TrEMBL record:
<dbReference type="InterPro" id="IPR050647">
    <property type="entry name" value="Plant_LRR-RLKs"/>
</dbReference>
<protein>
    <recommendedName>
        <fullName>L domain-like protein</fullName>
    </recommendedName>
</protein>
<keyword id="KW-0677">Repeat</keyword>
<dbReference type="Pfam" id="PF13855">
    <property type="entry name" value="LRR_8"/>
</dbReference>
<dbReference type="InterPro" id="IPR032675">
    <property type="entry name" value="LRR_dom_sf"/>
</dbReference>
<dbReference type="InterPro" id="IPR001611">
    <property type="entry name" value="Leu-rich_rpt"/>
</dbReference>
<keyword id="KW-0433">Leucine-rich repeat</keyword>
Length: 355
């Protein structure tokens, strides 16, 4: 139950009230078979708060799971039953950790319906139309929750979703994504845009990412070199942040890049260094770095980008003129160099055609 307030004086409270071992919640009110199944299949991997803190998302999810009629509990659970148990617990922790009771939309969440029917949950394998109806257990492949008043920190239990390959949570109030430090390795597409993230460091451990959108996420300071770990990345959006410093070798090992958006930051340095991205000169289709104080001229390196369709470096500090080599960019459809005051042809609309 709820603890009574201590009668200790404030002066001795810090010394006498610090518990050495967190209290353990009694399990006697729950079905022992269900509790034992939970301990066997989940407990060792979940935050210990599930049995130590009755107000924690983990314990609230545990209590819900004990009452869930969809999960099949037994002494000898099949692999499918175990996966369903783990998945439903993970999603319940996610719900409680991010203030699910205040979400704008939450159809079927924490209901007895199969998790694939809960709003925002995608269990489809690419190319399949079925989302889990009338079928055996299907793992969660995607979570897509945009503009839904989610507040808080992603829980580590999200990593139990070992088949999760896309996670879109655009325009919420998620502050911590440290849970991603532990995976899941399956994640390929990640959109965290318009969330006030306190740290981005854990994201650079998701080495199988192909798309990463960090638009307007409070990212500031120099871009960490650890971003090089994302060698499979194809699309990168870092726009509308407070990133600063020079970009020298951050993209050097990211040879599969197709799209880079650096708009509206404080990046300095020159394009020759930024475009040093291994063999991405064969894959890059779109490059945008508008409204950054980049300096120098258009480098020779640029003219080797055979697939480039869009190149935008407006509102910068470029110097020089458009070189004749620009004609080598046979795929170029849009060239925007507007508002570079010391660049010839940099005023006006700045659009050009590389053909």
């Amino acid at each position: 139950g709820k603890k009574e307030p201590s009668s200790l004086s404030p002066s001795c409270a810090p010394l006498m009230m610090t518990p050495t071992v967190a209290p353990t919640i009694s399990m006697s009110q729950f079905d022992p078979i269900k509790v034992e199944a939970f301990k066997q299949h989940i407990a060792s991997r979940s935050n210990k708060a599930w049995y130590q803190d009755e107000w924690s998302p983990q314990h609230r999810a545990f209590v819900w799971l004990m009452q869930d009629e969809t999960t099949q509990f037994s002494d000898t659970m099949t692999k499918e039953d175990s996966e369903r148990l783990t998945t439903r617990y993970s999603l319940a922790v996610f719900y409680f950790a991010l203030g699910g009771n205040k979400w704008v939309k939450k159809n079927y969440w924490l209901s007895n319906k199969e998790h694939c029917l809960w709003q925002f949950i995608d269990c489809r394998v690419t190319g399949e139309g079925n989302n889990g109806e009338d079928s055996p257990f299907k793992p969660v492949r995607g979570i897509e929750i945009e503009h839904n008043n989610m507040i808080g920190a992603l829980p580590n239990e999200l990593m139990f979703l070992s088949k999760l390959d896309h996670f879109y949570v655009w325009d919420n109030s998620i502050e911590s994504v440290e849970a991603f430090a532990k995976g899941p390795d399956s994640l390929k597409w990640l959109d965290l845009s318009k969330n006030p993230l306190q740290s981005h460091k854990s994201l650079f451990r998701l080495t199988n990412l192909e798309k990463l959108n960090l638009y307007d996420t409070g990212f500031d300071g120099p871009l960490p070199v650890e971003i090089q770990n994302l060698r499979k990345l194809k699309e990168l959006n870092l726009s509308d942040n407070q990133l600063s410093g020079t970009l020298s070798n951050q993209f050097q090992k990211m040879s599969k890049l197709e799209s880079i958006d650096l708009d509206d930051n404080k990046f300095e340095g020159n394009l020759d260094d930024i475009l040093n991205c291994g063999t991405c000169n064969n894959t890059l289709i779109s490059f945008s770095s508008a409204d950054n104080p980049l300096s120098g001229s258009l480098p020779e390196r640029l003219f080797g980008f055979s697939a480039l369709k869009k190149f935008s470096v407006s509102k910068s500090k470029l110097t020089g003129t458009i070189p004749s080599g620009i004609g080598k960019l046979a795929a170029l459809e849009k060239l925007d160099l507007a508002y570079n005051d010391n660049f010839s042809n940099g005023n006006g609309n700045g659009n050009g055609n590389g053909n």
